[in-house]
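Quarterly update, task 2.4: adenosine-5'-diphosphate-bound model.
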Amino acid sequence: MTVPLIELCAVSRRYDEGPPALNEVTLSIAPGESVAVLGPSGSGKSTLLNLVAGLDRPSAGTVTVDGVRVDQLGESASARYRRARIGLVFQFFNLLDDLTVADNVMLPAQLAGTARGTAQRRATELLGTLGVGRHASAYPGRLSGGERQRVAVARALMNRPALLLADEPTGALDTAAGEDVQRLLTDLHADGQTIVLVTHDLALAESCATRTVHLLDGRVAADSAVARVR
Ligand code: ADP
Ligand code: MG
């Protein structure tokens, strides 16, 4: 049995109002898995992802990622944890509009104290691999949604994260761009990247995930391997 990369143990997240966003979720994800978290709007998907990313704290339970008790990290330790171990991709890209594409991608490395030349080489390599190399010195506002999401993926991979987290990464893209991002995530998983992906998009889940976790009202309603004909 491999040591899990992510381990959630009886994790709940309650707000003052309403039922718990997550209700005693226990879940273990091994290195190299690609897991799609599915479920209706409001079922707790983003809450789950944010807890794994250390962007939020559980009301009860423990979150362990890559040996780190994420639920116990303070603000600066949690920022360091994300920088070193987590790549994050969001629905609306979250790129900085007044930095060039290359500078956006290099930012995580700079924050981690990587030498500029090293960061530049890696940014160039990543942007090339992801098919947006020619836009390196452009500003994100000039790019299409699909191109911006590729840049966001490059930024997420900059510090070679143990874990790539994506929350509705195709949610703001047209079908063709969504399929590009789908292929990209599938290739990353084939190269060994551990991925947890929140999505409404069943096609995306079935193509890049090896396992689907369905949430309903903050609980795991189903957890199954994706059958694949190869
Ligand atoms: P999903 O990503 O599956 O759509 P979320 O994880 O965003 O769902 O939300 C789960 C539940 O928690 C929802 O009912 C939502 O209204 C509630 N929730 C999320 N964030 C907050 C908040 N900051 N304050 C109060 N309730 C929240
Ligand atoms: Mg959400």
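Highlight for this quarter: The mean pLDDT is 94.
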